[in-house]
# Entry
Amino acid sequence: MKIELDLETLTEDPASRRQASFGNRVYRTLKQAIVQLQLRPGNSLSEADVARKLGVSRQPVREAFIKLADVGLVQVRPQRGTFVELISRKEVENARFIREAIEVALVRKAALEASPASIDAFKGLLRRQEAAAAAGQHSEFLQLDERFHEAIADSVDCRRAWLVVEDLKVQMDRVRFLSLPAATPMATLVAQHADIVAAIEAHDPDAAAAAMSGHLREILTSLPRIAEDFSDLFDD
# Structure
């Protein structure tokens, strides 16, 4: 299997890159490669091959495999090897359900507490998302989408809640990548984010909660079609 991985071309926020440990950057590189289907469900992974490709020792790769297994992206089979997990509709739906509960609570809090500076930051991310959508930059758009949701948690000083969501949402991320742009147009997602920001700015927690709930349920509309179109990537 040819593995296209490179720590230096990883498209993550520069601030995040500076803050991350080297081992965590290996994990993020592999996670992004799995989410964006450079490493497809069912592919086998070799510690030695990945270490050689990334120019690192096998230890950070081994640690990354363990963390990827913890979040359900790879499966380590004794005596057989490590494999990228197939996508499970059930796990995607469960992850979405839990994520909605957490993020609706966060956006309610943001509608009551977010500062004008935080709201300006949300709007700045929206403008960048619009630009990425117009340019057809899917990977960049998904990075900004994640940063938007993270910024809401940060605006109300709930970093721990975001870390829980970050681990949960990997079950959704591969489906989200597959859903762009055909099943869920990026313009639709930008409009949903705009509704969330408008409700926060209006200090309307009920409207903010409804907008976030509707946004996070978008995947339920596209999931059946995606599972049918890419049946070889799903285990159910």
Remarks:
- The two ends are 25 Å apart (CA to CA).
- DSSP finds twelve helices and three strands in the chain.
- Confidence is low (pLDDT under 50) at residues 7-20.
- Strands lie at 44-45, 74-77, 81-84.
